[in-house]
Amino acid sequence: MHLELFYNKEYCLKYKDTIVFTFQMKDKSIHIVHQELLPISMQNKEQIEFDLIRQFCSERILMAGRKHCKELLTACKIDEQNDVIIGILSHALSFRDNYWISSVDSEETWGKINLYQNEFSVNIAKVALTGKLDSLTNDILGDNIYTGELTGKGTKAKCFYRSSQGVLLLKNETMEEITSEIVVYFIARFFKVNCNEYIYKKIYDKDCSVCRIHTSETNEMIPCRDILSYYNSHNMTYESDYYKFFMKIDPINFIKMQILDYLTLNTDRNRDNFGILSVNRQMKSLYPLFDHDSCFKGKSVSGLYFPTGLTFYKTVEMLKTVYGMFYQKIVNDLQNLEYFLSTENFKKVFLAYKSKEQYDRMMERLRNIL
Of 61, 173, 324, 352, which is most buried, counting CB atoms within 10 Å of its CB? Predict the structure, then answer.
C-alpha cells in the first residue's frame, strides 16, 4: 500500500451528501464547510484539530484487540494500522449514524455507499465471525460491496447479516453470555424500558447472540463517549455534566437503565454501551439498551457502576435522594416488575438459563428497593 496516495489527496467528512469539512493528511489542514453539521464529539471545541479526526476514526473502526482483526483486515486488503487510513479505506461507514469519509474528487454518493441500502460482503462477514480465509472470494471493498465489519468497539468476533427483518448483528459469545442477553431483554420488557431483543443462533458452527440494528437513515445513535467528548470530560460520575445531560433528555428511562443494571449486576455499562437516540438530527430519548452479556457476573451490590462512579448500592441510594421526584414515578413499574418476575412462568424461563441462586439474589435486590 503506497502511503503517498493518501497523503497527496484531499478528503472530506460528509453527513449523507453534504460536506461537513475537508482535510488533508499531508499538512493536517482542515477547512470547515458546515459548522452546524459537525459530529457532537467535535462540537464545543475552541478549534477543530487533526487529532479530532484521528479520534473520530479510531472510535468508528474495529479495535486492534478484536478477535480475528488480522484476518479481517487481510480479507479487506488492508495492510495499514493507521486509524485514519483505515477510516478512509472503509469510508468510516458505521451503523451508528450517517457520517462518512470520501476523497473530495470522488463521485460516490451516500445513496450508493451507505450500509442501510447497499449490499455488503457475506464472505467478509464470515471471516469476521470465524477468522477463516479459505472461503474468501474476490470481493473488493468500494466496488458496490461495502462492509460493516470494520466498525464497532469490543473484542468479540462479530458480523452483520441482512435479513427480511433488517440488519442483524451476530456476536460469538459463550452460552452464559448469550443467555444473559436473552434474560435481560425479558426483564427490561416487563420493566417497560426499551431494550434490544436477543436470540440464540448457531452460525458457521459458532454460538451467537443475534439482535436487530435499530439505527437507520433517520434514527441515529449518539454514544455516551461522544457526550463526554462534548463536555471535554473523561470522568463518568453522577455529578458530571454528561450525567445531567442524560437526565435532561430522558430522566425516566435513564433511571430505569440504572435500576435494571443494579438488578442484573451489569458490570459493562461503559461509555460505548449506551447513548441517545437522535431522530432526524433531534435528540429524542435514551437509545434502546443493548450489550448485556456481562450481566449476572457481578458478585455483590458493592461493585462499581461506571455511569455514576458509585457502587451499585450507592447508585440506587443516590437516585432516591438526588432524583427522588423522578424515582417516585417508576415505583409503580417496580412493583409491577416484582409481580411479573415472581410468576412461575417467568421463573421457569429464568431458571432455564440461570441458576436459582442468581434468581433469588436478583429478587432480593429488587425487594430491597421497593
Answer: 61
